[in-house]
């Protein structure tokens, strides 16, 4: 799934490619507790999910610094495509061979990996020595059934990205704060350009701000109800359909939807998109943003109930079967410290999860980073259930059918709800019903 979570200039990149390799450490079979000894020894295989070109250099620099501080620990860095990373990790962990010691996991994968027994609990270990400093939203993504199985590395959220010059040409002074305002602004821009002003990704993740805006959600975990086909969801779909049918927006249900959306925005064909910080480096490479200050970012507009955007990001997890837990936890502590996060943020324009990192001069002096603070304040936690990430597969399929006109909103959402029910009542869990 494309992620993963603004009014100002931005150039944020974060996202996803991954890797696989076998753990080969030789010591540290148990956690050390609260202190990270410089004498620790072992090998840590690290699967990274950052972009290998734009982001990996910052992590490799931190790894080099770590190995200087802890000469007894060798870090083996590996990278593989994000799309296959979760399954690659699951396969290796299930087989007891080839899993990494430390894995940069999408936040949506953590509950399922923890439920399966693949992750080491980190409570009371060096990896969580400064746990109280983490932002509440990202910290919540590390929990499963009361225990901590990850540390939050970067956070993100969807915002409204827009072309300031096209807004100005249409006489628009500020980003819209409601979907109704967005439609009005988009039609004003279309009157000037002759083209739909906003390009909407068809993936269900990008629909969540509309769903949250009407007070809806995919599921209600407290009652074990699937709520994706609620009246609120139907209303949210109606807002999207109205934007498209009015000519204010365009969408794409092809396999190249995301690429086509990005190309339209960065070349100036579309004036607005809903996207996250990971996209902005690509945006700023386009002809529409030769002047980088032309890129505006605002919080997603509000629906009739509120404004809301899904929490995204990446966590660091430790493989429960690792032979190097001591070294693993020390490595996680180092590479995810507030100082390290500020360094990564300054080099990669990713959003830190440490509160202390946000007051570091490397972050406070970066307008790109500080611009996202209003956006992440509107983020909404996704369901902290093992099957949470898997719900997007039937959701994506159903959204494509609805937006392509093959089924009505209610029929499509009802089908999505039934397919989500199959995912939830999977034999490991049960008792879910459609609300």
Overall shape: globular
Helix content: 25-40%
What kind of oligomer do you see? Answer: single chain
Largest β-sheet summary: 7 strands, mixed
Q: Tally the helices.
A: 17
Per DSSP, what share of the residues sits in E-state strands of 2 or more residues? 15-25%
Task: Briefly note the CATH topology name of the domain at 42-156 and 312-380.
Answer: D-Maltodextrin-Binding Protein, domain 2
CATH class of the domain at 42-156 and 312-380: Alpha Beta
**CATH architecture descriptor of the domain at 42-156 and 312-380:** 3-Layer(aba) Sandwich
CATH homology-level superfamily of the domain at 42-156 and 312-380: Periplasmic binding protein-like II
Radius of gyration: 22 Å
Low-confidence stretches: 1-34
Instruction: Give the rounded overall mean pLDDT.
Output: 89
